[in-house]
Amino acid sequence: MYSRLQQRDRDLFQRCVGAQVSKDIGHAKIYANECAEIRKIAKVVLGSQLALEKVILRLETVEEFGNIMMQMAPVMSIVNETKSKIAGVVPQVASELDAVNSLLGDLTDEAGEVTESSMPIETTDMEAKKVLEETGVVAEQRLRDQFPDLPSLEYANHPRIAEPAVAGAGASDSLQAGVYEYARKHEGELNIRTCADSLGASPEDVRNALERLRDAGKVVFE
């Protein structure tokens, strides 16, 4: 499933880039948002895969050297937490993990009763959460390495100065004057967020100022 998610992300990423090239910003945003959703699912899938790999290693260690009575409870807790995490993403895997947990429970029963004093449930839950946190961090790093950064849509519309006017000419307020001057100094290439930070304004205010400048004929969006 992780491989299919990667392929789906690549397809949508290319569509997003193509839409930007053709200046179809509406579709570019749709594709970018869908890529973001796919990456959220991919993180869950990859994190679950890593957690289960830890379970496999733990069971192999227990088989060779460990005390099954002391190790089975945290293993079952990790499997159960992973099942809950992935149930809404890959239901069939969650069902299989439920069966795995039942088998592990039967194995524990065969090995003997695990008393509360030998394996407190709080320790089990804490270890499971710690494992899932660690695998989540690793999964996030791998996603950054394996998935390309989504193209920024802040450059979707480049305001071109329509006339060589004096800074602020035709602007009805100081923010419009500031945005106009910023666009003029940067030869029309304006990143809304960067401009907003430079002027101490919000991105939304900068967009509104640009629209008013466009309506006044002072800038043209390309």
3D architecture notes:
By secondary structure, the protein is mainly alpha-helical. It folds into two domains: 2-146, no CATH class; 159-221, Arc Repressor Mutant, subunit A. The chain is 72% helix and 3% strand. It contains eight helices and two strands; from the N terminus they run αααααβαααβ. The chain has helices spanning 2-21, 25-64, 68-86, 91-111, 121-146, 174-185, 192-199, 203-215; strands spanning 159-161, 219-221. It has a two-stranded antiparallel ribbon. α2 (25-64) packs antiparallel against α3 and α7 packs across α8 (203-215). The longest helix has 40 residues, at 25-64. It is elongated. Mean pLDDT is 76; it is low at 114-123 and 161-172.
Q: Major sheet, described briefly?
A: 2 strands, antiparallel
Cα-to-Cα separation, first versus last residue: 40 Å
What is the multimeric organization of the chains shown?
single chain
What portion of residues is helical? over 70%
Mean pLDDT: 76
Low-confidence parts lasting 5 or more residues at pLDDT below 50?
114-123, 161-172
- Rg over alpha carbons: 27 Å
H/I helix tally = 8
Strand content: under 5%
Characterize the overall form.
elongated
